[in-house]
Amino acid sequence: MNTRSELYPMALRLDGRRVLVVGGGAVATRRVPALLAAGARVDLVSPVLTPALRGLVDAGRVHWSERGFQPSDVDGAWLVQVAVDDPAAAAEVSAAAEERRVFCVRADDRHEATAWTPAVARHGAVTVAVLSGDPRRSAAIRDAVRDALAGGAIGHPGAPAREHRPAAGNGAGWVALVGAGPGDPELITVRGRRLLAAAEVVVADRLVPGLLLDELGPDVELIDASKIPYGPQRAQEEINRILVDRALAGRAVVRLKGGDPYVFGRGGEEAVACAAAGVPVTVVPGVTSAIAVPAAAGIPVTHRGVAHEFVVVSGHVAPDDPASLVDWPALARLRGTLVVLMGLRHLPAIAAKLLAHGRDPATPAAVVQEGTTAHQRTVRAPLGEVAAAVAAAGLRPPVIVVIGGVVSSGTAAPRS
Length: 416
Fold this sequence. Notes:
Radius of gyration: 23 Å
Structural class: alpha/beta
Strand order of the largest sheet: 3-2-1-4-5
Shape: globular
Largest sheet: 5 strands, parallel
CATH architecture of the largest domain: 3-Layer(aba) Sandwich
Distance between the termini: 47 Å
């Protein structure tokens, strides 16, 4: 490609059109959500995938060929995205695309590509896309335009206002625990988005909105926290170590979590680890799914004359498991609203436990899958029947379970 020639900007209509993505690592994790949001039919070719991409495959949104690239994979594609860091492998893909006259984006070497992806930001119905000869400059201009659209003009393009950054000491970096919200990328807070724009390292959970990752700068190190090996405790220790080590190396680190960092997000453990190591840390609250997802389904967690209280519990441990810290008999006597996070797997046992301790089987219940996103689904049924109804509907995680009279008192039309 002649790098001296002018770029010809355009927008692609990808609805229903096949896009080939080669590679299943961090770059593909960042790029695939934007392709899906554009309506593309994504075919992914890679021997391995990140957990985030595997979740999209399991949900039936991406087709995965579990193998290496073959030139015939390009046949029928409208666009090719090469998301591998091996120059020889990337060159093979771009050569196959060139031979078939298909535009090809390369993550490893944009100067050898026939198409470039711009620095993108989304603000409501407006999409900002910036191209320049320097990806860092493109990202800085993009961020400045996005902040202007949000009404938050800042002094230096691409960096958050000083008062929004943790105070670093002794030349060290910093860590921000940022809640990304329940699924809709626009539900991250303004402060969270500003810190994300300043990040040099992002440690992300699987449930983080994918479009937020698509907006990261080209030099940002993305670490998929759900890919870290070992059991849950060892994995958390490794996440703590990564946060501390990167910050002590002088880097700006954002720990990006779905929902709120302190609502079943282990943010407290991470904050303690950073403080113990002398790393400046700040917490940016996020919109929690416990309240936002029921609201998106037309269910208020409190309602005058119906519920003056609501309780949020984790359902990732079965009610009869000795490790459970939840007082299920007490919750069965609750007159208000019960919201259960991470409870899909144990929903039959949870419903049975509540019924066994006196909860009326006719109590309204709702289960909302992927709330606030385009894939939101809601199943409503009496408590005595909800587990069977959810199984019949084939709901999959993440879901929020809502139990109580408020399920029948919402005024907004729920999505289905």
